[in-house]
Write a structure and sequence with these properties.
Elements: H1 37-40, E1 47-52, H2 59-66, H3 69-72, E2 76-81, H4 88-94, E3 99-103, H5 104-112, E4 118-126, E5 132-136, E6 152-155, H6 161-172, E7 181-184, H7 190-195, E8 202-205, H8 208-216, E9 219-222, E10 233-240, H9 241-246, H10 248-267, H11 269-279, H12 284-287, E11 294-295, H13 301-313
Parallel strand pairs: 1-2, 1-3, 6-7
Antiparallel strand pairs: 3-10, 4-10, 4-11, 5-8, 5-9
Helix pairs in contact: 2-10, 2-11, 10-11
Length: 333
């Protein structure tokens, strides 16, 4: 298996808010493991290029590479690192990549605008407690969630999953979300903007949450992955419907490998920590301590429907999306 080009920045996804995975001894699948029955039955395509993000959320595809899970399915998968989910959409449409890992909000919006006809191959990550945080500096007058009203908060991209989930959590905490001013700030610029007072509270994911707490004495004001946004689905593996129709056996094999990687990650934190330095700027020492998102070892249309419903409520969609009609049949055990 080949790894894509080195990540240019450690983009921190919403799923970085994930709860820590319990550790136990796990045995990885070797690269010379025998192919599965489906692989032996013949795949329409074996070499795949999949766009990923330099974020912890993307770890399952790298674990599947590292543990030989794609080889077991007869696949040769090359991750190609991009800096944002929307960048992958034209590449999928043009056939430059086979599939992409990206946040659902961007993908549902593109589907709604008919930029592509979406097919969800496998769920990827879900928000976990304490992996995301709305934080205030030690001398800030912001002490409670109510104090956030009228304040400025950073997001990586306007009108995306960060804002979508936080809106629901703010309402649950009796905070008027319409009073919040969101500004787009790159991850590299969050800390300088915060210190300079350009934002009042910082919307952080790991490893920034851990760093801000330990080095700046920052205080947690609100968990964006709590209450109504608990286990909020962040991102997944998608293709176009045309690609899926052309390669259904390949899609099923890819799904099985991703699900099996997630099952392994649930049992062994070390397999996640081991791959993070390969595609993020998170070093081995940091990888051993940060909070991980939940990695999905099965697909659930009910929990994923929540994303589309909230987007419609926010008027980010022009019509309802029945998420179940976009999901691939689950072939994993």
């Amino acid at each position: 298996m080949r790894l894509g080009r080195t990540a240019m920045a450690a983009t921190i996804g919403f799923a970085l808010t994930l709860g820590a995975v319990s550790c136990s001894a796990g045995t990885g699948t070797t690269s010379n493991a025998p192919p599965s029955a489906s692989a032996a039955g013949g795949l329409e395509k074996t070499k795949l290029k999949v766009a990923t993000l330099p974020a912890i959320d993307s770890a399952a595809i790298y674990v599947a590479v590292n543990q030989g899970l794609f080889e077991k399915e007869g696949l040769d998968v090359t991750p190609e690192i991009l800096q944002s989910s929307p960048d992958a959409i034209p590449m999928m449409v043009k056939g430059e990549i086979d599939a992409a890992f990206g946040n659902y909000v961007s993908m549902f919006a593109a589907h709604d605008k008919q930029a592509l006809k979406l097919r969800i191959l496998a769920e990827g990550s879900r928000a976990a407690p304490d992996s995301l945080s709305i934080m205030a500096l030690p001398n800030s007058p912001i002490k409670t969630p109510k104090d956030l009203e009228g304040k400025t908060i950073n997001v990586n991209v306007l009108h995306n999953f960060q804002e979508l989930a936080l809106t629901q959590v703010l309402k649950a905490n009796n905070v008027d979300p319409t009073t919040i001013k969101y500004v787009q700030v790159t991850f590299q610029s969050i800390m300088p903007s915060w210190k300079d007072g350009q934002i009042d509270a910082a919307y952080l994911g790991e490893p920034m949450v851990t760093s801000a707490t330990s080095t700046m004495g920052a205080r947690k004001i609100l968990d964006p992955a709590s209450g109504p946004a608990a286990e909020f689905p962040i991102s997944g593996y998608v293709s176009t419907q045309d690609w899926y129709d052309k390669y259904p056996k390949t899609a099923a094999a890819f799904q099985r490998a991703i699900h099996n990687a997630a099952k392994l990650m649930e049992k062994n934190r070390e397999v996640v920590a081991k791959v993070l330095p390969n595609f993020t700027q998170i070093d081995a020492a940091t990888a051993a301590t940060v909070t991980f998102p939940y990695f999905s070892s099965n697909d659930n249309p009910v929990r994923l429907q929540r994303v589309a419903d909230w987007m419609l409520e926010a008027k980010w969609l022009t019509k309802e999306i029945d998420v179940e009609t976009l999901m691939s049949p689950t072939t994993s055990g």
